[in-house]
Specification:
The protein has about 220 residues and is an all-alpha fold. The protein has one domain: Orthogonal Bundle (MetI-like fold), CATH 1.10.3720.10. Helices cover about 85% and strands about 0% of the residues. It has nine helices and no strands. Helix 2 crosses helix 5. It is elongated, with a radius of gyration of 21 Å. The relative contact order is 0.15. The model has no long low-confidence stretch (mean pLDDT about 90).
Length: about 220
């Protein structure tokens, strides 16, 4: 009982440190998911509708990024950018690395969703005079979104977990903040459990948001 009381006392003392790390993790995850999703949609469109040369370049991009460990991307975005004269802080470099990684996966998800649609959908839209932009926004994208949403939710959750790797370049996210508390309290099991619970809460929130959007855009019976 005394050990439990000591843990809660230390947790209360460290509450602002842990919440600061949680806020950084959420910020990094949100920026990388949004940025990676926007870029990923462009990647997916290029893979499906782009000219042959663009398809080749984008395919090479996705294959290289998807085949590269996230930790390598994080280190490259931080150290290589500095070597070429682009001064990115640890936070910016980490967001860039995760957004690029996210875009390669989202691009493949979008490509699969668009290619799964019947070709007649595009032909019908063209037959009534819709431009490509109108066809994509009003005909193809709403249908593809229903198919890609579950995979997108999984990718978003992976970005939250991948944010733990940013501690290697000094980003004060949740894991690194937790390790700082552990180095002071020596309560490794207890505080790692707290960190794991907070990561679960964030990913659970993403999963519930995905379910909510999925219900909103589901076909009406």
């Amino acid at each position: 009982m005394t050990e439990l009381a000591t843990f809660f006392e230390q947790l209360w003392i460290a509450r602002f440190v842990i919440l600061s790390g949680l806020g950084t993790t959420v910020s990094i995850s949100l920026l990388s998911i949004v940025g990676g999703s926007v870029l990923g949609v462009l990647v997916g469109l290029s893979l499906v509708y782009g000219p042959r040369l663009l398809k080749l370049v984008v395919r090479l991009y996705t294959d290289i990024i998807r085949g590269t460990p996230v930790l390598v991307l994080v280190l490259a975005s931080y150290y290589v950018s500095a070597a070429v004269g682009v001064n990115l802080g640890p936070f910016q470099a980490g967001v860039l690395a995760l957004a690029v990684f996210c875009s390669s996966h989202v691009g493949e998800i979008v490509r699969g969703g668009l290619q799964a649609l019947p070709r007649g959908q595009t032909e019908a839209a063209q037959a009534i005079g819709l431009t490509f932009r109108q066809t994509f926004l009003y005909v193809l994208w709403p249908q593809a979104l229903r198919q890609i949403l579950p995979a997108w939710v999984n990718t978003a959750a992976e970005m939250v977990k991948a944010s733990t790797l940013l501690s290697v370049i000094g980003v004060l996210e949740l894991l690194l903040r937790t390790q700082e508390v552990i180095s002071r309290t020596f309560m490794s099991l207890e505080f790692y459990f707290v960190a794991g619970f907070l990561y679960f809460i964030v990913n659970f929130g993403i999963e519930r948001l995905g379910k909510y959007v999925e219900r909103k855009i589901a076909y009406t019976s």
